User: Which sequence fits this backbone?
């Protein structure tokens, strides 16, 4: 019997039959586990459930039939036998698969459901490469005089693959037939069959759907669903062992509560006692808008909400990599580690370092991590922690966006720290939430602070009558608020007295240059004291290795006392990165004036647990540099904040702080902001005007998840030349990943200050961006007030 490969593996696991049977088995489990959400999706989109299931199974059964072509089989035999000398020809196998499906669809009466659009053909064409109107990723194949094809015997071999899940599509498969003319070169038009196929497909699109279809949204949703299911099942079937992720975390709210209780008891010896706020969240089966102050247990409330209904996936979205890493570490205490994934721009390095710490960094373990990263990036893990950008990028149809869409099917999706996002990102988040709900996902939006305009926006978007608030905590007063016209330098003696008394102090300013200036001043002032080694500068202009080390010193296991304060650091000089990045507490915090919502977040790090007597939050005037550059678009809010703080000081409760926030933002409507509208316009260009089903396969200026007026680029300071080149030349993938530990984001203006001097590299390492720029592990890349890095 002829052996056909699907993967370059010897034996059954590499065979075509094994892969197709695995795909159908996984698809059956997917439909069974998500039956409720899929049925609701089908009703909303006027598609019979049985028909949707049938078309997905047909696509899966034939998606790899093109691999039976001579070109692909020749390559597989070459890889398996490791014999050189074969003439290898590369050809996209999905083209043959799509052509066979197209021929099936053209047979009279063979439509999986009553719709003119060839969803299964389009899904198969796009299950490996991005698709655009010009079919750019298949340009090589359209130019080939001799395009690949499959034989009659190969096609009927594929049709004969047995599976218990094949009966549902038997009627469709009976229509599949072999036609030699499908693969013929057309001398009259000088076209190979690929060119001819695309020309026919283009005509079909124009005639039936893309140009004239009124309900493009429905077309987009159904097409995305079929393509997403196909790719999800194909990816899972192509994996083995630890690489194949679970379909579900398997938790209900009772199990979730017991896991939280066990983790908390192990951490501090105290049981988990649910607050009323957490109980209310845990009973809500629909969408939730949750508002609760710092330290109220929002994460636990979110997990109880996420598991109170049958939801196979939980997606937690955070504003920064630091908060994502911290939350991931909490999740692997609650859930099986194999069920948890993490994705952000530094996830590969983070996981690689975790392996180093936990397992001794064997190549095999690192290999498993690398293989899982693509699945993590597409939210395939049952519990995924990510920076919000990872989901927002799906708005622009880039990469494997359709897998991210299918991941939200019936999922519980949590947007935390919603106050951290500017109007542009709120516009993207709004569009993402709309699509999550159309995929029958549930959404929880959480925040410690939320002015009325933002609150009413999300209430309307989520369809909730009112937010769930931690009323039992709103009378809490953690620290006194003070406002002064004095500069921070005026408080030097007071701060020294506080340090001598054992107090932990934080100074927060709005620019890196100012933080570095103050750190040098305090470093000199405390040089001959017991605090010489207990002062830290913290901002974003450090290489990643040093920033991770600083964060470990501040919030690492065993590094904080019973009050949540850093044991080894007495004075920290920081920028606004401290607002959302660190779960830490201080006795006194001196903060430069900023918008009130930012100040509230900073104050949340002052007596965070509410167990410190005499905690103080002192606000001093904003610098000209911060006013001009950092908060240049927030002059009105800064002015209003100044006015409010002059009137309201003292030991303010959460209710009083909330009233102050309402006053500061009473005239502000973020949905009228130009950046919010820019987000909607950019998405509209991608989804409406260009093509509702195609991908963005080229760089596009609209495809950004954050508007950054002050551009930063990651570079490596010359100081680390030797370490980085040694890592790159080791030949180990895990070592090359660690190059990112030496990168630091700097502004273009900073580079120009140092004349953009890139180090001369040997040709094999010329890709490394190593610059002749100074670096100090205490203050990072030197800045100044002419180049105000934001954080």
Assistant:
């Amino acid at each position: 019997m002829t052996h056909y490969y699907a993967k370059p593996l010897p034996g059954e696991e590499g065979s075509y039959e094994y892969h197709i049977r695995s795909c159908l088995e996984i698809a059956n489990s997917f439909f069974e586990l998500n039956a409720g959400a899929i049925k609701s999706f089908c009703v909303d989109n006027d598609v019979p459930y049985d028909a949707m299931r049938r078309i997905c199974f047909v696509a899966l059964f034939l998606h790899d039939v093109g691999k039976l072509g001579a070109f692909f089989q020749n390559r597989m035999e070459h890889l398996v036998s490791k014999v050189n000398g074969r003439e290898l020809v590369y050809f996209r196998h999905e083209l043959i698969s799509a052509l066979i499906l197209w021929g099936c669809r053209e047979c009279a009466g063979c439509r999986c459901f009553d719709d003119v659009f060839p969803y299964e053909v389009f899904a198969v064409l796009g299950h490996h490469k991005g698709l655009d109107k010009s079919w750019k990723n298949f340009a090589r194949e359209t130019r080939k005089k001799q395009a690949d094809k499959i034989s009659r015997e190969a096609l009927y071999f594929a049709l004969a693959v047995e599976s218990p899940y094949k009966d549902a599509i038997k009627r469709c498969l009976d229509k599949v037939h072999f036609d030699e003319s499908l693969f013929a070169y057309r001398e009259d038009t000088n076209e190979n069959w690929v060119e001819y196929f695309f020309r026919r497909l283009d005509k079909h699109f124009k005639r039936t759907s893309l140009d004239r279809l009124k309900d493009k949204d429905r077309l987009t949703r159904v097409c995305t669903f079929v393509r997403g299911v196909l790719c999800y099942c194909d990816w899972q079937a192509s994996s083995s062992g630890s690489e194949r992720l679970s379909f579900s975390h398997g938790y209900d709210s009772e199990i979730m509560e017991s896991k939280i209780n066990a983790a908390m008891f192990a951490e501090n010896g105290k049981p988990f006692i649910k607050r009323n706020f957490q109980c209310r969240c845990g009973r809500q089966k629909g969408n939730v808008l949750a508002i609760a102050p710092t330290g109220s247990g929002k994460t636990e409330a979110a997990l109880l909400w996420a598991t109170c209904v049958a939801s196979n996936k939980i997606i937690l979205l955070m504003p920064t990599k630091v908060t994502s890493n911290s939350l991931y570490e909490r999740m692997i205490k609650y859930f099986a580690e194999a069920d948890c994934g993490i994705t952000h721009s530094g996830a590969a390095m983070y996981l690689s370092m975790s392996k180093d710490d936990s397992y001794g960094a064997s190549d095999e373990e690192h290999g498993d991590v690398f293989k899982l990263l693509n699945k993590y990036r597409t939210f395939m893990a049952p519990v995924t922690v990510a920076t919000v950008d990872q989901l927002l990028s799906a708005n622009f149809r880039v990469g494997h966006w359709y897998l991210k869409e299918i991941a939200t099917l019936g999922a519980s999706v949590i947007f935390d720290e919603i106050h951290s996002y500017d109007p542009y990102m709120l516009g993207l988040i709004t569009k993402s939430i709309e699509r999550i709900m159309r995929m029958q996902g549930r959404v929880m939006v959480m925040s410690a602070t939320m002015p009325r305009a933002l609150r009413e926006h999300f209430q309307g978007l989520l369809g909730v009558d009112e937010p769930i608030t931690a009323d039992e905590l709103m009378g809490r007063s953690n620290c006194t608020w003070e406002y002064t016209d004095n500069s921070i330098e005026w408080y030097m003696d007071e701060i020294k007295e506080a340090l001598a008394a054992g107090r932990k102090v934080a100074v927060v300013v709005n620019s890196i240059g100012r933080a570095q200036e103050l750190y040098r001043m305090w470093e000199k002032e405390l040089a001959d004291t017991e605090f010489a080694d207990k002062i830290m500068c913290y901002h974003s202009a450090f290489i990643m290795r040093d920033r991770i080390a600083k964060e470990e010193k501040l919030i690492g296991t065993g590094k904080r006392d019973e009050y949540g304060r850093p044991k080894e650091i007495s004075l920290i000089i920081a920028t606004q990165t401290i607002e959302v990045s660190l779960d830490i507490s201080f006795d006194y915090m001196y903060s430069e004036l900023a918008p009130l919502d930012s100040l509230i977040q900073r104050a949340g790090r002052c007596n965070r647990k509410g167990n410190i007597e005499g905690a103080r939050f002192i606000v001093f005037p904003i610098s000209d540099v911060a006013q001009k550059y950092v908060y240049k678009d927030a002059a009105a809010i800064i002015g209003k904040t100044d006015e409010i703080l002059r009137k309201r000081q003292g030991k303010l409760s959460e209710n009083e702080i909330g009233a102050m926030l309402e006053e500061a933002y009473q005239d502000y409507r973020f949905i009228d902001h130009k950046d919010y509208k820019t987000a909607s316009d950019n998405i509209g260009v991608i989804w409406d005007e260009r093509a509702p089903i195609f991908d963005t396969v080229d760089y596009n200026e609209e495809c950004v998840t954050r508007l950054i007026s002050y551009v930063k680029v990651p570079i490596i300071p010359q100081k680390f030349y030797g370490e980085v080149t040694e890592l790159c030349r080791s030949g180990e993938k895990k070592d090359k990943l660690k190059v990112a530990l030496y990168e630091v984001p700097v502004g273009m203006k900073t580079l120009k200050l140092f004349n953009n001097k890139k180090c001369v590299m040997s040709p094999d390492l010329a890709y490394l961006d190593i610059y002749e720029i100074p670096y100090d592990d205490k203050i990072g890349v030197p800045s100044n007030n002419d180049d105000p890095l934001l954080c």
